[in-house]
Design brief:
extended, two-stranded antiparallel ribbon, Znf_C2H2_type, C2H2-type domain-containing protein
Length: 280
């Protein structure tokens, strides 16, 4: 049952990483509750050494007279400042320094989860470091009268597992399979030997007809066109007519000016400027 009385205790059991700030200790605990037990072990080690010093970083009250005084100092000055998460899932609120503020927060925002069984709040509350404790329900009593067979669910009974026997059975199957494969391969080899046909030996190579000097052999060009390997292929498609480029929009004006210059004798008609000495 999730109630106001156990809300803070539940929040102290919620899973989240908390590093120990005791000097020289690099442990990381999984909840506020585990950190409390861990710090108590540090105090017990101090008691065994006969000293009661607090080794928290930046602690103002380090020296104490007894184990009880050191432990009360740890709870009031350090454990009370460790951040507590709201036990409700997806709630971003945290509480550090004043754990008592968790109660009005639950009353104002999460009142619908209070006084309800933990089984109903499964998934709504954050998980804790404690193992899940399922709620056991009593089995229904057996019926007094006879019931039909179709209403009885019979669970299947699996075969007993015998690793040694199973392994020997697998080995025997593998051995039988390998024997069958070897017998089949032997039969195929025998069939191939029966169907084999012998051919005559290949003729000997005529060494005299082979050019052993590696001198180039020049042969005349064959008159047959299909034997002339270097001859280009004939063009199968029709000839592509050359298209004249289109006249630009300024070409007409240039031609008119060019004719005027030619008539005035500024151009000799060959596309060259006349020599100034010849004009004189």
């Amino acid at each position: 049952m999730f109630t106001f009385d156990n809300a803070i205790a539940y929040a102290q059991d919620v899973l989240h990483s908390i590093a120990c700030e005791w000097r020289g200790c690099e442990a990381t605990m999984n909840s506020w509750r585990q950190l409390q037990k861990h710090l108590k072990m540090h105090c017990q080690n101090q008691h065994a050494q006969g000293t009661y010093d607090c080794h928290f970083h930046k602690c103002a009250g380090r020296i104490h007279a007894s184990f009880i005084g050191l432990w009360e100092h740890i709870k009031l000055s350090h454990l009370s400042r460790v951040t507590l998460l709201c036990p409700v899932s997806d709630c971003p609120h945290t509480f550090s320094g004043h754990h008592s503020l968790l109660m009005p927060h639950i009353c104002d925002i999460h009142m619908k989860l209070v006084d309800r069984p933990m089984a109903e709040n499964t998934g709504r509350l954050r998980p804790t470091y404690r193992p899940y404790n399922p709620v056991l329900q009593d089995l229904p009593p057996l019926p007094r009268n006879n019931i039909p067979i179709y209403m009885v669910t019979a669970l299947p009974v699996s075969k007993a597992i015998n690793p040694r026997g199973q392994r020997s059975e697998m080995l025997s199957k593998i051995t039988q399979r390998s024997k069958k494969m070897s017998r089949k391969e032997q039969e195929e080899e025998d069939e191939e030997e029966e169907d084999a046909q012998l051919f005559d030996d290949l003729p000997n190579i005529d060494m005299e007809g082979i050019n052993m000097s590696r001198a180039p052999i020049l042969q005349p060009r064959s008159e047959q066109l299909w034997l002339q390997l270097s001859r280009p292929y004939s063009i199968l498609s029709s000839r592509v007519e050359e298209t004249k480029p289109a006249v630009s929009m300024g070409y007409g004006a240039f031609w008119a000016e060019f004719k005027k210059m030619e008539e005035a004798g500024l151009i000799d008609g060959a596309g060259e400027w006349p020599d100034a000495e010849e004009d004189e």
